[in-house]
Amino acid sequence: MNYATLTQRLGISIEPALLELALTHSSFSYENGKQPDNERLEFLGDSVLGFLVTAHVYSQNPELDEGALSRLRNSTVSAKTLGVAANDLGLGEFIKLGKGELATGGATKANILADAFEAVIGAAYLSGGMEAAEKIVNDFVLPLINSEDVFLETSEPRTVLFELLKKQNKPEAVFEITFVGPDHDRTFFAKLSVADEMIAEGSGRTRKAAEAAAAIAALAKLRG
Q: What number is the average pLDDT over the span 92-106?
C-alpha cells in the first residue's frame, strides 16, 4: 500500500516499515501467518499521547483542579475522541484488516481507529522523536479540546442525541437492548428507534457503552 498520501496529511516523515506496522491490525496478522501487528506501537503511542495531552491540559488550564484535569485528559485520549481524530486524518482507508473485520466495517470502528492512531503516534516517536509525535497530537488531537460539540458528543452522546431530536421536533429515541454471553463476559447490543423506525445500532461490553455507540451512529445519520 502507498502511504504517501497519509504521510502528506501527517506532515512528517515516518519510516515506511514502522508506518506499515502501525497500520497492521491483529486480525490481519492472525490471517497472514501471525506476522507482527500494531499492538506494541499502540502501547508506546498511548504513553506518548498521554504525556503530551497531560502536559497541555495542565499548562493551559491553571484554574482546574486535579479531578477536572483528569476528566479533561481522559476525554481527550478516549477511544471515541481519538476515533474522531483518526477520521479527520482519513486513517481508516490505510488500516490493514482481516477479512472478518473488513466484512463488519472494521475501518470505521472507533476502537480500531483509536488503536491505529496511537500506533501511528508510536511510530512517529520512534522515527522522529517527541517532536514528530507532538506534531500529530497538536494537529489532530488538541484542536478537539476546543470543540465543545465533539467533547459532548464523545462523552455524552445520548444527551446530544436527545437535544438534536428535540430541535428537529422528533419523538425521543427508544433503545432496545439485548445481550449474549455469561454474566462475566457479556456483549450488549442496542437498537435505537425514533418514531418506531430503527435508525441505528451499537454494541459494547456494557449496556451504557452499547447505547452510546448507537447514539453516535444515530447522530451521524441524522446529521448526514
A: 91
State whether residue 24 is helix, strand or coil. Answer: strand
All three cell numbers of 98, joined, read 482481516
- Whole-angstrom Cα distance, residue 126 to residue 118? 13
Q: Average per-residue pLDDT in the chain?
A: 89
Residue-level pLDDT at 149: 57
* Residues contacting 88, CB < 8 A, separation 6+: 140
Active site includes 115? no
Can you list the domains of the chain with their CATH numbers? 4-146 (1.10.1520.10), 157-223 (3.30.160.20)
The Cα–Cα gap between 139 and 135 comes to: 6
What is the percent of the chain with per-residue pLDDT over 90, rounded to a whole number? 57
Choose the catalytic residue: 42, 46, 101, 153.
Answer: 46
Q: Which residues contact 175 (CB under 8 A, 6 or more apart)?
A: 190, 191, 192, 193, 211, 214
Single out the catalytic residue among 42, 118, 134, 153: 118
Of 190, 193, 181, 191, whose CA–CA distance to 210 is shortest? 190
What pLDDT sits at residue 150?
A: 58
201 has catalytic annotation: no
**66 grid coordinates:** 486535579
State what percent of residues in the chain have pLDDT above 70: 95
Residue 203 in 3-state DSSP? Answer: strand
